[in-house]
Design goal:
26% of the residues lie in helices and 31% in strands. It has 10 helices and 15 strands. The strands form 3 sheets. Strands 6, 7, 8, 10, 11 and 12 form a 6-stranded antiparallel beta sheet that branches. Strands 3-2-1-4-5 form a 5-stranded parallel beta sheet, with helices on both faces. A 4-stranded antiparallel beta sheet has the order 9-13-14-15. Strand 10 and strand 11 form a beta hairpin. It is globular. Keywords: Methyltransferase, S-adenosyl-L-methionine, Transferase. GO terms for molecular function: histone methyltransferase activity; protein-arginine N-methyltransferase activity. This is Methyltransf_25 domain-containing protein. It holds the Pfam family PRMT_C.
């Protein structure tokens, strides 16, 4: 556990848990030696549950649970010595908690000194942010070898409406079926991807350094990354699978890779409008842009632009949505 490894840095200090949920990370922090933990969450039902769990663990004197958004908060201390948060959502950025974590960093995390250089400040923060960095990954997958893809198959939704059509004798084919298919193709599908379905090499899209990233960048610019992946055979690519990993100050890494033990984050699958034929060592290259819609900040839009073997004739751009 990353907090346990950081016992020396936490010993006798104040810890802030942003989006504490049930308070489990706050409890880990208190047991790792933090003098006091401030646990914040904007959801009242969660903070009530966290208070009960903290009390049941005999830590009510060491952990203060507050029902408040971090942006609106006013802690009884000016600064804290470390910050922990399980802010990650599906495709890393869903639910848009990262901007709140960065706001908490700027508002509460103690700086090394008033004369510290930008580099010194960043290094100081990297030792006190849990996690301190995050990386997004992408690869191409094929439904032909993916057992789980059948659960996401757009034809399942169409078959459902065909059954209703037969039952009630209402015509629901043609344009209606096309609309169902298009709706399916515009969504981000959260599922466990069978590693056998991955038919290209994987690529790191981008790495976010939480020590230097600005909250306003996430809200106004989103997150951008580029990729280049190679086919691992003669395959039909159905879409892309996206996952992430986060890194902690002492080198621990939490990965949501399809090659690792599944987590509750699973992976995020996006489907092409039609399969793309690739031969051994063909190259798919492009860019991905993650943004939060201005009218639904917790939601996530993923825009993908790509082409095959640098041929502009194959260039395609699609936008996908992940909503609550």
């Amino acid at each position: 556990m990353a907090l346990t490894r950081a016992r020396k840095r936490l010993q006798g200090g104040a810890l802030l848990d942003v989006g504490c949920g049930t308070g489990i990370l706050s409890i880990f922090g208190a047991k790792a030696g933090a003098r006091h933990v401030f646990a914040l969450d904007a959801v009242a039902s969660l903070t009530e549950l966290a208070k009960r769990i903290v009390d049941e663990n005999g830590l009510a004197d060491s952990i203060t649970v507050l029902n408040v958004k971090v942006e609106d908060s006013q802690l009884p201390v000016d600064r804290v010595d470390a910050l922990v948060s399980e802010w990650m959502g599906h495709a890393l950025l869903y639910e848009n908690m990262l901007s709140s974590v960065l706001a908490a960093r700027d508002k509460y995390l103690r700086p090394p000194s008033t004369t510290a250089s930008a580099d010194d400040l960043a290094q100081w923060r990297r030792r006190r942010l849990f996690p301190c960095a995050a990386t997004l990954f992408i690869a191409g997958f094929s439904e032909d070898v993916d057992d789980t893809a059948e659960e996401c198959d757009s034809s399942n939704g169409i078959r459902h409406w065909e059954e209703l059509s037969d039952l009630y004798r209402v015509e629901l084919s043609g344009a209606f079926a096309s609309a169902v298919s298009q709706e399916f193709e515009s969504q981000v599908h959260v599922d466990v991807a069978d590693p056998r379905s991955i038919v290209t090499t994987a690529c790191a899209l981008t790495t976010l350094d939480l020590a230097t990233l600005r909250a306003d960048e996430i809200l106004t610019q989103g997150v951008k990354g580029s990729f280049e992946v190679k086919s691992m055979g003669t395959v039909e690519v159905s879409g892309f699978v996206i996952w992430f990993s986060v890194e902690f100050p002492d080198g621990d890494v939490l990965s949501t890779s399809p090659y690792k033990t599944p987590t509750h984050w699973q992976q995020s699958l996006i489907f092409l409008s039609k399969t793309l034929s690739m031969r051994q060592d063909d190259v798919l290259s492009g860019a991905v842009h993650f943004t939060h819609p201005s009218n639904a900040r917790r939601d996530l839009e993923i825009s993908v632009e790509f082409m095959l073997n640098q041929s502009k004739d194959t260039r395609e751009r699609r936008t996908y949505h992940l909503a609550g």
